[in-house]
Write a structure and sequence with these properties.
The protein is of the alpha+beta class. The protein is built from 26 helices and 17 strands. Helix 7 runs antiparallel to helix 22, helix 8 packs across helix 21 and helix 12 packs antiparallel against helix 17. The chain is flat.
Length: 995
């Protein structure tokens, strides 16, 4: 990589456009970049890094890249032309910036960051665009250089302070720096990946062992005291073998106990069979003895009831004879009951008749009923005449009511129609007035809205005129305050730059190198004078200026808006006074409201006229209809009166002494019904008396033939169904009981058992119960032993399966654990306790030390050599030690013991060696331009010459080296120089003495 040209505009301390010709400086091989403190030497290196990677080195990130000295319209821009990998490229980057709005509008707007990448086409002799994408340009540059931004800043922009700290740092700090440069995070990722896999495998093995141990606990519960658990935790070696051995012992013990329980059950079964047989024999003898005793007791009870049994047999015999007389008795009772009902009915019917029919027979009563029915039939025509008379009277009443209603209608119609003409004329007048008012309201509405708009615009014009004066005053005041704040800030900034040496001197410590010259001795540091301005005071002044400038911009924007609104309001309102416009608008509004109120009655007047016209038509029609109905009622009234007189004469003859025909008809209907019912009751009483007489004769004959003296004796001997069933049951029960007793007393087994001693049933039952209990206990013991064997077999099989499943997991865990502890440096096989990443970095550090030694020998006149050491430092890990070998003493010592000057050229040699190694690591990309930042002030003249000779020898590899320093002696020794000068309007770059 070779730099050709760098263009800077409004970047860092450079307020204007600056150009650096690296091609001319590189021709000299060695050039000096110098200038006063704070002028912007490092900003040039920042611009190179920003052009390549789009960001500045890490220590200076986060701040604004735009120059505070730049004009508001100047865009911040960095352009770098370089050759890398045989391609000539041009990179242009513009960070985001806040610029004034265009076309003179107040305020600012933010433009986005932009990037361009171009390549020079030698055949065409012109530049061609490659990309404008930030991401694509970043990926392209990183791929061409083969380095990240951090690596570039360490390899190309050699910060001496960092490498001096690297020489004195411990192994951990060196590891962090080397890890960033050589990108060894992949090895740390391997360590982490192996550790994660080890933890995952260990968790799987522990989970499997936990399940296996849980099954072992279940086997212990199932086997009782036949199994002892091993005293091992999940994950410990030998757990599976110990559990499987204990399970085998438990299964063997359980099978032995099962065999013993089986034999005990067989013996208990035999004892129970014998006890059950003896109990059955005793129970049978006891049953036969109880049966014989019960039969003797029943025979004695039968003998005591023998007389009662003979009386029951005689009673049953008389009842059977009386059953032959039962039909005649039932027939006589039925005839007697029927005769009583008929005689009662006749008495009730005669009681309702007049005394004239008290002795009449059935025939006389029937004849009287026929005569009354004939008279009832002759009243039907009188009933119809009576109904017609009622209708005539109702119709005559309705005619009178209609006549009175029609008279009221005619009177109301005449009164209303008399005032019709006056009502219509009044409504016509109202309609015409409302129409004229509506016309006026429409005309005034057209004039009303423009007048209101002009009045509103005039009021707004007056208010905006007052606001314009006030805003103009605010703008003038804010401009003055912003100008004063800027002048105050610039004065403080100039005072701070003049006294910056005292501010830097306050940070110096004895033995520590100066951040400017690198010297470790500080004989006469600058002192702060009275009124010294520090960084905080300058930043407060800058913040005050920025706030004042923002308020000034906001006031100017507000003034522009007020002026635009005033112009618009004036154009609409004109020059007329607001009071005059208000008076005109008020007069129009008053006249418009008056016309609108007058026009509001138009619709109601139209509706009222339509309603009264409809009312006139309705009343005229009603008057005509009433006259027609009056004429027709006169003829109908005469017809009704003549018909009514004829009907009243006919009804007077038909009613007789009754109040009406209906009353007379009701009397005849009741008389016919009573006579007919009484005749039927008399005939029924005569018939039932004859049937009762016949039933008495048949009953006397049946009793005589059955052997009874009188019918009453036969009736007394007759039993009802319940008494007959009860008597028969007693006779049957006697016979059954007598037969059963006789059979029981004749059984040979029962007689034989009765001759034996009484049976001992309680003792036999106790013996059988004890035998059954012993059998149940033996069966339960045998079932428990069998269940224990099955459960142990099941759990053992599951544990064996789990052990087979865990075997590959445990083997994988052992492999991963060995690798993880080895790469983490905790394994016993890793004697130096080096992590994998430290091991790789140690190899890189060994290469860097070898490359640095080649230059350190020349810088130190062959005295010093850098060597890598993998010894452990205290209790820490080994691998990243760095020692220096002193050829004068032959001793090897730590780099922290070097003096200030020795530390500088040792760190310079280390930086150059590191650049070579990183370049080779990046794919061999050639780095033709290097920058070395500070540290030369700590060298004596001889050492400085030797260091410059080493740097000058880099030209042999066609390299150019830029030294960033403000040491005066270097200006005499190095002719090609790039000087940075600072001033009130920003820094400028001056280049001279190039090739």
């Amino acid at each position: 990589m070779r730099l050709h040209r760098l263009d800077i505009a409004a970047f860092g301390p450079f307020g204007g456009a600056q150009q650096v010709d690296f091609g001319e400086l590189s021709a000299a091989g060695l050039f000096l970049l110098h200038g006063p403190t704070g002028a912007g030497k490092t900003s040039i290196l920042d611009a190179v890094c920003y052009a390549l990677y789009g960001s500045v080195p890490g220590a200076r990130q986060g701040g604004s890249l735009r120059s505070d000295h730049a004009a508001p319209g100047t865009r911040t821009e960095v352009t770098l032309e370089l050759t890398v990998a045989g391609r000539r490229l041009e990179l242009t980057r513009q960070p985001p910036w806040e610029r004034p709005k265009k076309q003179g509008r107040p305020g600012t707007t933010v433009e986005k960051a932009q990037s361009w990448l171009r390549e020079y086409d030698a055949s065409a002799g012109a530049w061609k665009d490659l990309s404008r994408s930030h991401q694509e340009i970043g990926e392209e540059i990183t791929q061409l250089l083969g380095m990240s931004r951090e690596q570039f800043c360490q390899v190309v922009l050699l910060p001496q302070g960092d490498f001096a700290r690297f020489l004195r740092a411990d192994a951990e700090a060196r590891g962090k720096l080397l890890g960033r440069l050589f990108d060894t995070h992949r090895f740390a990722e391997v360590e982490k990946r192996l550790a994660d896999r080890r933890r995952a495998a260990e968790a799987e093995v522990c989970d499997g062992d936990a399940e296996l141990l849980a099954d072992a606990h279940r086997m212990q519960q199932a086997g009782g005291d036949a199994m002892e658990l091993p005293g091992l935790a999940p994950g410990e070696p030998g757990l599976a073998e110990a559990i499987m051995g204990a399970a085998a012992v438990a299964r063997s013990t359980a099978r032995e106990r099962l065999t013993i329980a089986h034999c005990a059950r067989a013996a208990a079964e035999s004892a129970q069979v014998a006890a059950d047989g003896a109990l059955a024999d005793v129970r049978e003898v006891a049953r036969l003895q109880r049966r014989f005793a019960e039969a003797r007791e029943r025979a004695g009870r039968l003998e005591e009831r023998a007389d009662t049994h003979r009386a029951d047999r005689a009673w049953m015999e008389r009842a059977r004879k009386a059953e032959a007389v039962a039909p005649a008795l039932e027939l006589r009772e039925a005839a007697e009951a029927e005769h009583r009902r008929a005689a009662d009915g006749e008495a009730r019917a005669r009681a309702l008749l007049p005394d004239t029919f008290a002795d009449a027979g059935a025939g006389g009563l029937a004849a009287a009923a026929r005569r009354a029915a004939e008279e009832l039939g002759g009243l039907e025509s009188a009933r119809r005449a009576e109904q017609r008379l009622a209708q005539l009277i109702a119709e005559r009443t309705g005619l009178d009511r209609q006549e009175r209603a029609d008279e009221d209608v005619l009177h109301d119609a005449e009164n209303w129609l008399g005032g019709w003409e006056a009502t219509r004329a009044d409504l016509q007048t109202r309609i015409e007035s409302a129409q004229e008012a509506a016309t006026r309201a429409e005309q005034l509405a057209v004039q009303r809205e423009p007048a209101q708009n002009r009045l509103s615009a005039a009021r707004q014009r007056d208010a905006l005129a007052r606001d314009t004066d006030e805003t103009q005053t605010h703008v003038l005041a804010s401009r003055e305050r912003a100008t004063e704040a800027r002048a105050h800030w610039l004065d403080l900034k100039e005072q701070r730059l003049n006294g910056i040496a005292a501010e830097l001197a306050a940070k110096l410590s004895d033995g520590e190198p100066c951040a400017v010259c690198g010297a470790t001795e500080h004989p006469a540091p600058a002192r702060k004078i009275a009124g010294h301005v520090d960084r905080e005071a300058e930043e407060r002044a800058l913040a005050a200026y920025q706030r004042a400038d923002e308020r000034r911009a906001e006031d100017e924007r507000r003034l522009g808006l007020v002026r635009e609104a005033l112009a618009a309001a004036t154009a609409e309102a004109g020059d007329a006074p607001t009071a005059q416009l208000a008076e005109q608008a008020g007069e129009l509004e008053r006249r418009y409201e008056q016309a609108r109120r007058g026009a509001s009655g138009l619709h109601s007047a139209h509706e009222e006229l339509r309603r009264v016209e409809q009312e006139r038509e309705r009343r005229t029609a009603a008057q005509q209809e009433a006259a027609l109905r009056t004429a027709s009622r006169v003829a109908r009234r005469d017809t009704l009166d003549s018909e009514r007189a004829a009907l009243e004469e006919e009804l007077a003859q038909a009613r007789g002494g009754a109040a009406s025909v209906a009353v007379r008809a009701g009397q005849l209907e009741r008389q016919v019904a009573l006579l007919t019912d009484t005749a039927e009751a008399v005939r029924a009483a005569e018939d039932t008396a004859q049937r009762l007489k016949d039933a008495d004769a048949r009953l006397a004959d049946a009793a005589y033939r059955a052997g009874f003296d009188t019918p009453r004796a036969a009736a007394d001997a007759l039993l009802d169904d319940a008494a007959h069933r009860e008597l028969q049951q007693r006779l049957d029960a006697w016979q059954s009981e007598e037969a059963a007793v006789r059979a029981a007393l004749a059984e040979p087994d029962t007689v034989a058992a009765a001759q034996q001693p009484p049976a001992d049933l309680a003792g036999a039952e106790q013996a059988a119960s004890a035998a059954a209990r012993r059998l149940r206990e033996a069966a339960s013991a045998r079932d428990a032993a069998a269940s224990r064997c099955r459960e142990l077999d099941r759990l053992s099989a599951r544990s064996a399966t789990a052990v087979r499943r865990l075997a590959p997991l445990r083997a994988a865990h052992d492999r991963v654990a060995r690798l993880a502890t080895l790469t983490a440096g905790t394994s016993a096989d890793n004697e130096r306790k080096m992590r994998l990443e430290s091991y790789v970095l140690a190899a890189r550090l060994e290469q860097v030390a070898a490359a640095a030694t080649a230059r350190l020998l020349r810088m130190s006149s062959g005295r010093y050599t850098l060597v890598h050491s993998d010894d452990r430092a205290g209790r820490g890990r080994s691998g990243l030690g760095l020692h220096v070998v002193d050829a004068w003493t032959g001793r090897e010592r730590d780099t922290a013991t070097l003096s200030g000057g020795e530390t500088f050229f040792a760190s310079l040699a280390l930086a150059l060696g590191l650049a070579d190694v990183v370049t080779d690591e990046a794919g061999g990309v050639r780095l033709d331009t290097l920058f070395i930042d500070e540290g030369f002030g700590s060298l004596d003249d001889q050492t400085l010459d030797e260091v410059l000779d080493v740097l000058d020898s880099l030209r042999e590899r066609d390299r150019s080296v830029g030294i960033v320093s403000h040491v005066p002696d270097l200006r005499r020794r190095i002719h090609a120089q790039l000087e940075v000068e600072k001033g009130r309007s920003g820094s400028v770059v001056r280049q001279r003495g190039g090739g």
